[in-house]
Write a structure and sequence with these properties.
About 65% of the residues lie in helices and about 5% in strands. The protein has about 950 residues and is mainly alpha-helical. Keywords: Repeat.
Length: about 950
């Protein structure tokens, strides 16, 4: 104990940092416990059992002073044979009474040179509230007093420096090792590599490894772990291969980490080779390696092999169960995950918070948002308290579901349990309130955040921007800069998206220029936000113009860009361009994206190619609610109600819950086919059976359905009994029905409301004039026209267009006539002559002018639909259908003529009038003359 004698006064002179209440504690720093858990390769011999004198000392430990007194007595007696064992008792006593420096001094003197005791001492030191920094302080003070330390102690200090990221002290220790010309053993070299890896980067650590004279297994293992800890997956894997080439054996931890690298890199072949290595060296019993193998196969989408490894594991622990369950969840096999979860329970393995969080996050990622809330309730019933990860997953699910009240309840839970100070939870709360349109609450949470990260700023700026509150968004942007947080591309993209969604295209472009002026480059999200906004607001041509600019800057499109472009194609009915984009999807492997596939279904339906829409839908492996809705809508706009209802029934069989859009599509299909009873059934059941509350759009569909079926009085009664104020769409549906059935009296009631709600909508005036003309009330026609002119309202031109040989040919009531007009009329007269032989009689009621019948027939010939179809027949000879787009509702005469044309020329004709399609084939129309 001579080494300890000069240090006694040093120990006695220090006051303890914190006086803790004494308690009896079975120390983790027990020599017997440590010896039993350490490998046989330790550089020191295993300690001998404790002697009875140790316990005699412990009986006298009632206070810190008693510990010091007994320590002094031991030093004076100089009991060498008991000193090592009794020093351990004094270290524990000093720790228990809060004198951490004295405990550290004794450890440095008596035990630090033995690697067996490092972890146990640190564990006990931390248990009693000691800060590892105090150990470094003791080391520095001892070193300054001239105490010499060997390499074992310096390695121990390096380990603490690594843990605390104390770079300067670690560098001083390394300098000390060099200055004293120590021959570094493998443990010290490992400590140096660990220190440099954590504090200075892997390059410095690798340099230590390369400079080592002997590369034994411990050094190789440490070198690989240092690289893998820094996520240098490829470098770590390469070092492992080099290690194996030299026939150096890897330990279990290294193998497990290398398998993790194989999962991160998608290196399945290398992972299989390591699996072979594990089998060759009979390491399968190592549960750490088994768990890593399962994770590696899961990351490489080989869940079946992962399951085989799991099933062959005898001593399955909780991490092993968690790995296979998370694997099934990650790949979307939620039912299999629950089967394993239940099997785990029956195997007496109790799930932990990691298990529950895995279930929560997995169900959210795969769209099972309601199940997330059910899992949370089950988790709490099992006695588990949600942590930050649990809350974040639940808040994300609540956000997607739009359950604001649930979100507020979770917010209360967060506050009660002190989680509101967690940065991730607070940011998730801001995001939840923003996406549920509660910007006031979002701002309140944001204001209470002490440490705001850029995600919180971006979320709130995005919320204000998307709601059109650009002044508040700009103020936040400026405040963000003032607080020293630099806006990133996400910040500016949220502003671009908000401006685009609000039809502020110039401002959105200005924000893109601002991105460039800040030294950043607009990315695919910047341009896609602009293109998407244009597509949603009906600026379809601008969307394609921005696409060209985007491509000029060398930015490749993504799946969202493609979906937005397909939306533009659907808006303009550009089938050929839509097909080209479809080819682009296939070439770039976007076709598997459910959003792209849904956009393709919508595009083909609205461009007059329902057959291709069905093909895309049938090939879609994972059908979302949006894809089902798109297909139902596609059949509805063609008047194919039977097919639309059939898709709905299949959707219910697939356990997909319908929403408000589903019922709008269903009611539209019913109204286009006159299925009154079916329509009433769906309208009545949507709330009672499916929990969908009817909106103004659903009521508008029902008014249209009743009116088209001829129940005009019932339609008016229905309007008057609505729980909300009828809007222009509702009265417009009634007026259209009055026009179909010639009911002037009810038409005037509907028009009166429409003229108040939409005084500048020319379509309402035109409908009313048509209704008066049908009844030969020409004075009322003139009166309505005068009223329209007095309001300054003008009826826009009627146009139709057809695409021939990649060129669009427009036929309009205004502007220039078509250059081939003569040939078109010649062919049209010829067709009309042939039609009359088959019984065609011109429907002159479609002409709302007070002129002679002969003149009315001439006016009918000038209808743009007839001219566009005729030109298509002249200039196309292939069996491909003729597709004509019209901006107004087709008249009954044009409808009849189109049927005759399809019969006489044996050609399919698709004609879009407004929002629905007519498919003419062999003299019949898909609408069955109900439109």
């Amino acid at each position: 104990m001579e080494a300890a004698t000069p240090l006694y006064h040093f120990i006695s002179s220090h006051q303890p940092f914190t006086q803790k209440q004494p308690r009896r504690y079975s120390t983790n720093f027990g020599l017997i416990n440590v010896a039993e858990t350490l490998p046989e390769t330790s550089p020191s011999t295993s300690p001998s059992p404790l002697s009875s004198s140790q316990f005699d000392y412990e009986k006298e430990f009632h206070s810190l002073n008693s510990v010091r007194a007994m320590h002094a007595k031991m030093i004076k007696l100089s009991r060498e044979r008991d000193s090592k064992r009794n020093m351990q008792s004094f270290i524990s006593a000093y720790l228990e009474f809060g004198d951490f420096q004295s405990a550290a001094v004794l450890f440095f003197v008596g035990f630090a040179e033995n690697y067996l005791y490092w972890n146990s001492f640190l564990e006990e030191f931390s248990y009693f509230g000691g800060n590892p920094c105090e150990i470094l302080e003791v080391f520095s003070e001892l070193h300054s007093k001239g105490v010499n330390f060997n390499t074992e102690i310096l390695a121990f200090v390096l380990k603490i420096c690594s843990k605390l990221r104390d770079t300067w002290l670690g560098l001083e220790v390394h300098a000390c090792l060099i200055k004293k010309c120590f021959n570094l053993d493998v443990y010290t070299q490992c400590a140096l590599m660990n220190f440099y890896g954590r504090c200075c980067g892997t390059e410095r650590a690798n340099k230590v490894f390369k400079e080592a004279l002997i590369h034994d297994s411990l050094l190789w293992n440490e070198a690989i772990l240092v690289n893998l800890r820094d996520e240098k997956w490829a470098e770590g894997l390469q070092m492992f291969c080099e290690m194996q080439a030299l026939h150096v054996k890897a330990n279990g931890l290294t193998i497990s980490k290398v398998l993790q690298a194989c999962g991160k890199l998608g290196a399945l072949d290398e992972g299989k080779q390591i699996h072979g290595y594990v089998i060759r060296y009979e390491l399968e019993s190592n549960i750490l390696i088994r768990t890593a193998l399962i994770n590696m196969y899961v990351k490489n989408d080989k869940i079946k092999i992962a399951r085989v490894v799991f099933d062959l594991t005898d001593n399955r622990n909780l991490p092993c169960w968690n790995s296979i369950i998370s694997g099934y969840i990650a790949l979307g096999y939620l039912d299999h995950a629950w089967e394993l979860f239940n099997e785990m329970i029956t195997s007496n393995i109790k799930p932990d918070i990691i298990t529950w969080n895995c279930l929560l996050s997995g169900h959210f990622l795969h769209g099972s948002h309601r199940e997330v809330l059910a899992i949370l309730r089950r988790m709490q019933s099992a006695g588990y308290q949600p942590n930050r990860n649990s809350i974040t997953s639940v808040l994300q699910a609540v956000t997607e579901l739009g359950y604001l009240n649930h979100g507020k309840e979770i917010h209360c839970h967060v506050i009660r349990n002190g989680l509101d100070y967690d940065l991730h939870v607070a940011t998730s709360l801001v995001d939840m309130y923003v996406k549920n349109d509660d910007l006031t609450s979002a701002q309140a949470v944001f204001d209470c955040m002490t440490n705001r990260n850029i995600c919180a700023w971006n979320s709130l700026i995005s919320g204000y921007s998307c709601k059109g509150h650009f002044e508040k968004a700009s103020n936040l942007l400026n405040q963000m800069k003032e607080e020293g947080i630099k806006p990133d591309i996400v910040t500016y993209n949220s502003m671009v998206s908000g401006y685009s969604a609000s039809s502020c295209i110039k401002e959105a472009l200005g924000m893109i220029r601002r991105i460039k002026s800040c030294g950043m480059s607009p990315n695919v999200i910047s341009w896609t936000s602009l293109i998407s906004g244009c597509s949603q607001q009906g600026y379809f041509r601008e969307a394609f113009e921005f696409l060209i600019q985007m491509q000029d800057e060398g930015i490749k499109v993504n799946s969202v860009t493609i979906s937005s472009l397909l939306q533009a194609c659907a808006g303009l009915s550009l089938l050929d361009i839509g097909k080209e984009i479809h080819c682009l999807c296939i070439r770039n492997n976007f076709i598997g994206d459910v959003y792209v596939s849904t956009a393709l279904i919508d595009m083909y339906s609205k461009c007059g190619n329902l057959e291709n829409a069905q093909k895309v839908f049938q090939r879609l492996e994972y059908k979302t609610l949006a894809s089902w809705n798109s297909m139902i809508t596609g059949f509805a706009i063609y008047g194919l109600s039977t097919e639309a209802i059939s898709v709905f029934d299949r959707m219910r069989e697939a356990n997909v819950q319908p929403d408000a859009i589903t019922f709008i599509a269903l009611l539209s299909s019913c109204k286009h086919s006159g299925l009154l009873d079916k329509g009433w059934k769906y309208f009545d059941h949507m709330k009672t059976d499916f929990g969908v509350i009817p909106t103004i759009e659903h009521y508008s569909c029902m008014v249209d359905l009743l009116g088209r079926a001829g129940y005009l009085d019932e339609a008016l009664d229905f309007i008057q009994s609505m729980p909300m104020e009828p809007n222009a769409a509702v009265w417009g549906a009634l007026l259209t029905s009055c026009r179909i059935h010639g009911n002037v009296e009810l038409g005037e009631i509907a028009a009166e409301y429409l003229f108040k709600l939409e005084p500048y909508n020319a379509a309402n005036y035109a409908l009313m004039m048509n209704l008066y003309a049908l009844s030969n009330r020409w004075k009322d026609v003139d009166r309505t026209r005068d009223k329209m002119e007095a309001m300054g309202v003008k009826i826009g031109p009627v146009w139709s267009w057809v695409q021939v040989n990649q060129r669009i040919h427009i036929f309009s009531t205004a502007g220039k006539t078509h250059q081939e007009e003569g040939e078109i009329y010649f062919e049209l007269y010829k067709l009309i002559s042939e039609m009359k032989k088959l019984g065609y009689i011109p429907d002159t009621k479609c002409v709302c002018q007070d002129i002679a019948e002969v003149e009315k027939e001439k006016v009918l010939l000038a209808h743009t639909e007839k001219l566009a179809i005729t030109y298509g027949l002249i200039r196309t000879t292939s069996p491909a259908p003729i597709r004509v787009i019209n901006n107004t509702r087709i008249c009954s005469d044009c409808h009849t003529v189109a049927k005759y044309m399809s019969l006489l020329r044996r050609r399919e004709i698709f004609l879009k009038d407004g929002v629905r399609f007519h498919h003419f084939k062999d003299g019949k129309c898909s609408c069955c003359d109900f439109w």
